Automatic annotation (TrEMBL):
Belongs to the peptidase S1 family. CLIP subfamily. Gene3D superfamilies: Trypsin-like serine proteases. The keyword Cell membrane does not apply. The lineage of its organism: Eukaryota, Metazoa, Ecdysozoa, Arthropoda, Chelicerata. InterPro entries: Peptidase_S1_PA, Peptidase_S1_PA_chymotrypsin, Peptidase_S1A, Ser/Thr_Proteases_Immune/Dev, Trypsin_dom, TRYPSIN_HIS. This is Chymotrypsin-like protease CTRL-1. It comes from the Eukaryota. Keywords: Disulfide bond, Hydrolase, Protease. It holds the Pfam family Trypsin. Residues 1-223 form the Peptidase S1 domain. One of its GO terms (molecular function) is serine-type endopeptidase activity.
Length: 229
């Protein structure tokens, strides 16, 4: 997953993100907004080009732009602008973004991140190496039922699988679909897990901001050339 980014805040790992152009990184809004305040771009950095989040190339940012209507779980996306153009290589490249409005229910997808890998609530240490897990997209109606809410809006998609899933530290990471043998297209941005059931539970699929819903926001704030599918 050469588009994966380990996002740091004041040198502490906080979230996963994805490279979407030579100047732009996509992540979740709650990764850059703390207690209602957008944090300074100078406080963030990213590590790219290595599955080990401690030993890749460090990049800095000059701008942090959460969605203007970001509110907790709603509109949970943000674009960060790299201070210098990101150099592409075998281990570093952008992911294309999905523009499809098609129903993705039951489609196989993959989530990648450096989130906690145990359900033990006392464990707060994230792994050094990038993890990934294969999931399936849930119908929003089923997701709403499992979350005991009236409706899950179209701007959100849910995905899960038995005994695998997301946890703290995976936020902001890409949810991707396979395109060809070695290519992927990003369909979601990791947003939340079910706090009742906890991490990686069959009955608690994770929630993702649906990328196609936020294309206009992303394109209007991206400084580089973004690939759309």
């Amino acid at each position: 997953f050469p588009f994966s980014v380990a996002l740091y805040y004041r040198d502490r790992y906080v979230c996963t993100a994805s490279i979407i152009s030579e100047r732009d990184v996509l992540t979740a809004g709650h990764c850059v907004v703390f207690n209602g305040i957008v944090q300074n771009p100078e406080d963030f950095s990213g590590v790219i080009g290595n599955v080990n989040k401690e030993s890749g190339t460090r990049i800095k940012f000059t701008n942090v732009t959460p969605h203007p209507q970001y509110d907790n779980l709603m509109n949970d996306v943000a674009v960060l602008t790299a201070a210098e153009p990101i150099r592409y290589s075998d281990g570093v490249r952008a992911v294309c973004l999905s523009t499809t409005k098609k129903n993705l229910c039951l489609k196989p997808v993959t989530s990648a991140g450096w989130g906690i890998t145990t359900r033990d609530t006392d464990v707060t240490v994230t792994p050094d190496n990038l993890q990934y897990t294969n999931l399936r997209v849930y119908p929003n109606k089923k997701c709403a039922k499992l979350y005991n809410t009236r409706k899950v809006p179209d701007s959100i998609m849910c995905a899960g699988a038995l005994n695998t899933g997301l946890c703290s530290g995976d936020s902001g990471g890409p949810l991707v679909m396979k395109k060809g043998r070695n290519d992927y297209v990003q369909v979601g941005v990791a947003s939340f897990v079910n706090q009742i059931f906890g991490c990686a539970r069959l009955l608690g699929p994770a929630g993702f901001s649906r990328v196609s819903h936020y294309i206009d926001f992303i394109m209007s704030n991206a400084k580089g050339k973004v690939c759309l599918e």
